[in-house]
């Protein structure tokens, strides 16, 4: 036994050494170092890692050309890091805890502040704020919000500052008439026939952050007055990670989602799947006064609806580091939706004495389905050691939708008008291709950066509408050739851009110019052809930032944007679902240009921030919905015709107040208020010469409670003016409480939506010969229960650390 004892010791030592070595491989601290002003990356910043309570660094490293760093091979323990760079105040990050179960710490974007007079250290703790502010917009970190857990992109957007989501799920930036929604920097409106369908099923657990860009940089398309960019999680944690969740509400809605990622030595795979079922109910009341020289009469209409929507979303991504200087990223998205609807409305015809002359009853039913498929390929090559990068991107998308609806109309008393039965079959297809080539390079000792790029966008739309009326004598459906039509749309956009980013001693200046050549053609099966003459547009862009005294920031921006009329607004096909309220597009629309300027001032304290913003924009040829009311020949009825038009000029002045207060590490409050003065002037119709105030606001509150519980709430309100009236909404609210179990892997959440009452909306609309009031309410008041489980499997081997050296 004594002779074998040394061997036993030897094997024991080998086991202990192997175990400790394996443990040492698990810990990772990563992040990105950027300027506090402008958000530009800082290459070659020094990263020093300390064990808590020690004064000598354990490891030092440096950020790469894009400002990223990753410190690997760390044992479990408490750490702090110090970030240093010439001309910036050192930043210390405390409270980084690495354990066997929580070994991967991604600190996100770490901001260094520039100070000319004094370079004192700035110390923070590891707690990523839900909302981050900048001169060019706002960033909402989805992972830091309770309300975002287990929901969808539509639900999350309702709580993002400066974003407003209407009852149909369409998101816009406050004060911006035309907003585009991007996913990972690419336009999603090219990826789906209905953006709301995509956002309504896109799981929030797959989203990293949402960027609200009020002054998009030159590399983005010139379309829209602002961009909402949804950044998806890439899942680049070591090993196998993910989550699975289910949720259900008392209204009958529910969803299930899962996402997972795996990272190997030089590649990463991530994917997600989601299913959503939703039941919508609501009712509306519309009252229209019709004024004509010889007569006045009224329409009093009551309606109700019930919709059922089912949607599924699948995403898959692959990231491959081909060599240390080459990267290939592939991603694909598949969306599938089905819906069914039933609605009724009763229209009471009232004469000048408000006596009912007749009643029209309409029963509508419909079934729809849509599918969207998108594939992206992005290749990045580091062209030189100074940090130059060449990027190529290619996106292909195809989507289609089929909508079949039936309208059964009867009148009372019988004999006044004959009953009708109509079917509308709308078949829509889209195909698109997007290509971009970008080059960026740091210059002047990596202080500044230049960017150059080319882009091409192609889009084809095919909208085939078949309308059939039932012949009660032959008991057959007969094609209505007057309303049936096929609309074909082709769009080609060629673009080039150049931008320059300057930074020095607290100053940050970004300037760029983008040029786009647009070629559009569309025609109808009736033989009408529209060839729009190709037009060239130039979009200058300027952003100025100045950070001083460690706590103040001044920003100024200027940009030119365009709102191009597209197929939904151009298509002259008539929608006569309600024969007294028809709608159609306008093929004679012209693009609208907007000049917008922002001034912002930020004050930051240790526990608070306040960012007032003054925004002014002037738009020529504003494209908005425009309603007219005309007498129907040979009858005593009036028909409302709703179309799009270049209604005139809109000058808008907005004051936006955004604030955040965090009295402790466990309590946080944020709020924003927008007051917007809009003035419309029009040569189209004197009734459009109007001005008015729009008011929007929101307030959010979150609190970490004992026993691994937390609470969060959000209130929103909007009251908006438009060219023909006002859209007044109600207060919407969300309250959420969460409890964690199983070492924070399992969480249970309860959410109360619109606890003060169902969401309602009031619309006031008027013209030269009519006044319209519409009140609607929807079943948004809901109790939702959700359960979410997160899983992690540590990889046995992790890539060796890069550019690290022990001290």
UniProtKB/TrEMBL annotation:
InterPro entries, per database record: Beta-barrel_TonB_sf, CarboxyPept-like_regulatory, OMP_b-brl_3, Plug_dom_sf
One CC-aspect GO term: cell outer membrane
Pfam families membership: CarbopepD_reg_2 (PF13715), OMP_b-brl_3 (PF14905)
Compartments where found: Cell outer membrane
Residues in the signal sequence: 1-23
Superkingdom of the organism of origin: Bacteria
Keywords attached to this entry: Cell outer membrane, Membrane, Receptor, Signal
Domain Outer membrane protein beta-barrel: residue ranges: 383-789
Protein name: TonB-dependent receptor
Annotated organism of origin: Pedobacter chinensis
């Amino acid at each position: 036994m004594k002779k074998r004892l040394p061997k036993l010791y030897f094997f024991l030592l080998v086991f202990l050494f192997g175990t400790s070595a394996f443990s040492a491989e698990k810990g990772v601290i990563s992040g990105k170092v950027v300027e506090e002003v402008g958000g530009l990356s800082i290459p070659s910043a020094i990263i020093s890692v300390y064990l808590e309570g020690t004064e000598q660094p354990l490891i030092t490293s440096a950020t790469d050309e894009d400002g990223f760093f990753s410190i690997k091979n760390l044992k479990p323990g408490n750490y702090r890091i110090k970030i240093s760079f010439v001309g910036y105040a050192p930043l210390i990050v405390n409270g980084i805890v690495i354990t066997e179960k929580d070994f991967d710490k991604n600190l996100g974007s770490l901001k260094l502040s520039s100070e000319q007079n004094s370079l004192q250290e700035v110390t923070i703790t590891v707690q990523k704020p839900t909302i981050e502010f900048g001169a060019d917009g706002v960033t909402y970190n989805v992972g830091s919000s309770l309300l975002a857990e287990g929901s969808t992109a539509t639900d999350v957007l309702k709580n993002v500052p400066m974003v407003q989501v209407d009852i149909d799920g369409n998101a816009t930036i406050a004060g911006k008439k035309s907003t585009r929604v991007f996913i990972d920097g690419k336009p999603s409106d090219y990826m789906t026939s209905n953006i709301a369908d995509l956002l309504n099923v896109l799981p929030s657990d797959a989203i990293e952050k949402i960027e609200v860009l009020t002054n998009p940089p030159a590399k983005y398309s010139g379309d829209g007055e602002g961009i909402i960019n949804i950044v998806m999680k890439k899942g680049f944690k070591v090993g196998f990670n993910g989550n699975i969740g289910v949720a259900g509400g008392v209204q009958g809605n529910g969803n299930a989602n899962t996402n997972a990622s795996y990272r190997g030595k030089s590649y990463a795979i991530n994917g997600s799947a989601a299913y959503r079922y939703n039941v919508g109910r609501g009712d509306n009341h519309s009252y229209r006064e019709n004024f004509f020289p010889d007569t006045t009469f009224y329409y009093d209409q009551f309606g109700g609806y019930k919709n059922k929507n089912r949607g599924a979303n699948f995403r898959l991504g692959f990231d491959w580091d081909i060599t240390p200087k080459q990267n290939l990223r592939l991603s694909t998205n598949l969306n599938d939706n089905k819906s069914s609807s039933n609605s009724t409305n009763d229209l009471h015809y009232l004469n000048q004495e408000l006596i009912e002359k007749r009643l029209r009853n309409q029963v509508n039913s419909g079934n729809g389905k849509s599918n969207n498929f998108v594939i992206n390929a992005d290749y990045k090559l580091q062209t030189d050691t100074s940090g130059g990068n060449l990027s190529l991107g290619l996106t292909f998308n195809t989507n289609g939708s089929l909508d079949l609806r039936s309208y059964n109309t009867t009148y009372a008393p019988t004999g006044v008008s004959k009953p009708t039965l109509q079917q509308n079959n709308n078949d829509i297809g889209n195909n698109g291709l997007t290509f971009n080539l970008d080059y960026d390079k740091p210059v002047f000792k990596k202080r500044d950066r230049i960017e150059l790029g080319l882009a091409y966008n192609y889009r084809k739309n095919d909208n085939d509408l078949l309308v059939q009326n039932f012949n009660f004598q032959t008991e057959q459906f007969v094609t209505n050739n007057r309303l049936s039509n096929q609309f074909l749309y082709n769009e080609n956009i060629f673009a080039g851009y150049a931008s320059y980013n300057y930074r020095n001693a607290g100053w940050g200046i970004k300037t760029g110019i983008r040029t786009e050549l647009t070629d559009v053609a569309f025609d109808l099966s009736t033989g009408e052809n529209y060839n729009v003459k190709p037009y060239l547009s130039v979009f200058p862009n300027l952003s100025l930032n100045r950070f001083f005294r460690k706590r103040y920031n001044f920003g100024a921006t200027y940009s030119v944007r365009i709102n191009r009329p597209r197929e939904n607004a151009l298509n002259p096909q008539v929608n006569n679902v309600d024969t007294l309220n028809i709608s159609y597009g306008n093929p004679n629309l012209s693009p609208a240009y907007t000049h917008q300027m922002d001034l912002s001032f930020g004050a930051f304290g240790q526990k608070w921030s306040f960012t007032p913003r003054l925004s002014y924009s002037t738009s020529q040829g504003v494209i908005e919905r425009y309603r007219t009311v005309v007498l129907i020949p040979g009858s005593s009825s009036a028909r409302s015709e709703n179309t799009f038009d270049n209604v005139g000029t809109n000058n808008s002045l907005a004051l936006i107040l955004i604030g955040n207060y965090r009295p402790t590490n466990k309590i946080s409050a944020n709020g924003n208020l927008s007051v917007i003065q809009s003035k419309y002037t029009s040569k189209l119709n004197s009734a459009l010469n109007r001005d008015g105030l729009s008011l929007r606001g929101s307030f959010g509150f979150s609190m970490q409670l004992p026993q691994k519980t937390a609470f969060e709430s959000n209130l929103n309100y909007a009251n908006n003016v438009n060219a023909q009236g006002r859209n007044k909404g109600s207060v919407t609210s969300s309250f959420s409480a969460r409890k964690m179990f199983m070492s924070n892997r399992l969480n249970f959440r309860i959410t109360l939506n619109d606890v003060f009452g169902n969401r309602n909306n009031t619309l006031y609309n008027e013209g030269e010969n009519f006044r319209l009031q519409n009140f609607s309410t929807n079943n948004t008041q809901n109790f939702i229960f959700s359960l979410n489980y997160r899983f992690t499997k540590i990889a046995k081997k992790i890539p060796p650390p890069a550019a690290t050296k022990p001290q």
